[in-house]
From TrEMBL:
<dbReference type="InterPro" id="IPR034904">
    <property type="entry name" value="FSCA_dom_sf"/>
</dbReference>
<protein>
    <submittedName>
        <fullName>HIRA-interacting protein 5</fullName>
    </submittedName>
</protein>
<feature type="region of interest" description="Disordered">
    <location>
        <begin position="224"/>
        <end position="244"/>
    </location>
</feature>
<feature type="domain" description="Scaffold protein Nfu/NifU N-terminal">
    <location>
        <begin position="3"/>
        <end position="97"/>
    </location>
</feature>
<dbReference type="GO" id="GO:0005506">
    <property type="term" value="F:iron ion binding"/>
</dbReference>
<comment type="similarity">
    <text>Belongs to the NifU family.</text>
</comment>
<dbReference type="GO" id="GO:0005739">
    <property type="term" value="C:mitochondrion"/>
</dbReference>
<dbReference type="GO" id="GO:0051536">
    <property type="term" value="F:iron-sulfur cluster binding"/>
</dbReference>
<dbReference type="Pfam" id="PF08712">
    <property type="entry name" value="Nfu_N"/>
</dbReference>
<dbReference type="InterPro" id="IPR014824">
    <property type="entry name" value="Nfu/NifU_N"/>
</dbReference>
<dbReference type="InterPro" id="IPR001075">
    <property type="entry name" value="NIF_FeS_clus_asmbl_NifU_C"/>
</dbReference>
<dbReference type="InterPro" id="IPR036498">
    <property type="entry name" value="Nfu/NifU_N_sf"/>
</dbReference>
<dbReference type="Pfam" id="PF01106">
    <property type="entry name" value="NifU"/>
</dbReference>
<dbReference type="InterPro" id="IPR035433">
    <property type="entry name" value="NFU1-like"/>
</dbReference>
<dbReference type="GO" id="GO:0016226">
    <property type="term" value="P:iron-sulfur cluster assembly"/>
</dbReference>
Length: 244
């Protein structure tokens, strides 16, 4: 099997294109994101492949698009230590014919993965005209570029002139891409839709806590190593943030 790899704007995320369908056709979301080993086992869409990948030293998250996989690692682990094992796991798993993503009943109301609900950019007859225009622009002009970079985007609402968005995959923890997306998304939406006054990135509470803890850990490392310590790409970037 030939698996192509692509760099993303995030140096700690690689996009793997295995030339086969990754997400089952019956899943309405255009992506699934696994941020912890527990999420790979939890309903409604556990994934044995994501479980294997998150077991690789240094891997921090696994993102499934329709036909690609984005793997993110921590900034301290070089790709030379991660990429061969990830490549091998994906290759062997797909050749084995196993189901990449399963669907199980969510009896306890526990959602283990990001992106398991209806596509947030899908048409909804209850949307206002402005929200409908925002979704259409995001779907046709913004999403393709983000998917090309190994991520995706969620629409979380429109309030007081602010479009609330959540970045996924490679874009979720990348400073450079969030700067670009902030400028690109915000300027495009404000240009075409006069009601839009700005864009805010939404972060779930767990992410806020995790990033605060990581920042403390990184600062401790920097103090130990001195000013030569390499900065991480994990951060809030220049995007405004709002609690999810």
């Amino acid at each position: 099997m030939f698996i192509q790899t692509e760099d993303t704007p995030n140096p700690d995320a690689l996009k793997f294109n295995p030339n086969t369908r990754i997400l089952p056709e019956n899943i309405s979301s255009p992506f699934l994101e696994y941020l912890s080993p527990r999420s790979t086992l939890a309903p409604p869409h556990p994934s044995p492949l994501a479980a294997k990948l998150l077991n690789v030293d240094g891997v921090t998250s696994v993102f499934f698009g329709a036909d690609y996989i984005t793997v993110s690692k921590d900034s301290a682990t070089p790709w030379a230590h991660v990429k061969p094992e990830v490549f091998s796991i994906i290759n062997e798993f797909i050749l084995s014919g196993q189901q990449i993503v399963n669907t199980v009943e969510d009896k306890a109301g526990e959602s283990g993965q990001g992106g398991t609900e209806q596509d947030s950019l899908a048409y909804d007859e209850n949307d206002s005209e402005v929200v409908g225009m925002i979704k259409e622009l995001l779907e046709t002009r913004i999403r393709p570029a983000i998917q090309e970079d190994g991520g995706d985007i969620e629409f979380r609402g429109f309030h007081d002139g602010q479009v609330l968005l959540k970045l996924r995959g490679a874009c979720r923890t990348c400073d450079s891409s969030t700067v670009t997306l902030k400028n690109g998304i915000e300027s495009m939406l404000m240009h075409y839709i006069e009601e839009v006054q700005g864009v805010q990135q939404v972060m779930d509470q767990e992410e806020e806590i995790a990033m605060e803890e990581f920042a403390k850990f990184e600062e401790k490392l920097r103090q130990q190593k001195g000013l030569d310590a390499a900065p991480s790409t994990i951060g809030k970037g220049s995007l405004d943030t709002a609690e999810g």
